[in-house]
Amino acid sequence: MTGKRAIPRQSLPDVIANDLRERILSGNLAEAETIRQETLAEEYEVSRMPIREALKRLDAEGLVSLTNNKGATVTKHSLAEMGEIFDLRTLIEVDLFRHAIPRMTAADFARCEKILGEMEQSYDADDVGKWGALNYDYHSALYAAADRGLTNEVLQRVNLQSDRYVRMHLSVMKKREPAKIEHRELLTLAQNGKTDEACAVLTRHIQRTKEQLLEMVAARREAEDR
């Protein structure tokens, strides 16, 4: 006779936190926007208790700023902080890529190739939402062989901060061909074992995104302040 088996279930705060996280990353909840617990409780048809717990989790992730007296707001980074986020990405991702390339197997290359093919289809279909998700998956696949769990944990937190800005950038980016070419180049160089060249392309890839994004956000904020 078999015993009982536990089936993982998401708690209500988990479900709400996941949905709010996606709303923030997609821009549905804008930076500096006030989040009212009573409004969310009505939207989700729950009490305030799971709302508070969900907001605490997002506060710990840095997506929400939660205070006892003022409630919660979507985190708004300064331009300097945004630049720092992408500089951290460069440091961490290049380190992971450098460790991963000598260890990558045929299975790793096949997974990267599969995701890259889906990304290239999303370029052609102008599906920004899908492109953003696949972009994260692709970069993760490139670094998987490094097998550096602690570094990946740090990167995941940094990526939570950068993801909404990456999506914002993708939604308005007119010249997408350079990103498309660089993504293909990263894989080709890794397959050929050209570690230094691959890391140089990755550095250029992330830093160009940073520069274009900062220029875009600075112009947008200046227009809003007028």
Q: What string gives the helices and strands in order? A: HEHHEEHHHHHH
- How many H/I helices? 9
Q: What is the H level of CATH, i.e. the homologous superfamily of the largest domain? A: GntR ligand-binding domain-like
Number of domains: 2
In CATH, the topology of the largest domain is named Four Helix Bundle (Hemerythrin (Met), subunit A)
Structural class: mainly alpha
Largest sheet: 3 strands, antiparallel
Q: Termini distance?
A: 72 Å
Strand fraction equals: under 5%
What topology emerges from the helices and strands here?
Elements: H1 12-25, E1 34-35, H2 37-44, H3 48-61, E2 64-67, E3 71-74, H4 79-100, H5 106-125, H6 128-143, H7 149-172, H8 177-191, H9 195-225
Antiparallel strand pairs: 1-3, 2-3
Helix pairs in contact: 1-3, 4-7, 4-9, 5-6, 5-8, 6-7, 7-9, 8-9
Description:
It is a single chain. The chain is mainly α. The protein has two domains: 12-74, Orthogonal Bundle (Arc Repressor Mutant, subunit A), CATH 1.10.10; 79-225, Four Helix Bundle (Hemerythrin (Met), subunit A), CATH 1.20.120.530. The chain is 73% helix and 4% strand. It has helices spanning 12-25, 37-44, 48-61, 79-100, 106-125, 128-143, 149-172, 177-191, 195-225, and strands spanning 34-35, 64-67, 71-74. A three-stranded antiparallel β-sheet has the order 1-3-2. A hairpin with a 3-residue loop joins strand 2 (64-67) and strand 3 (71-74). Helix 4 crosses helix 7, helix 4 runs antiparallel to helix 9 and helix 8 runs antiparallel to helix 9 (195-225). The protein is globular, with a radius of gyration of 20 Å.
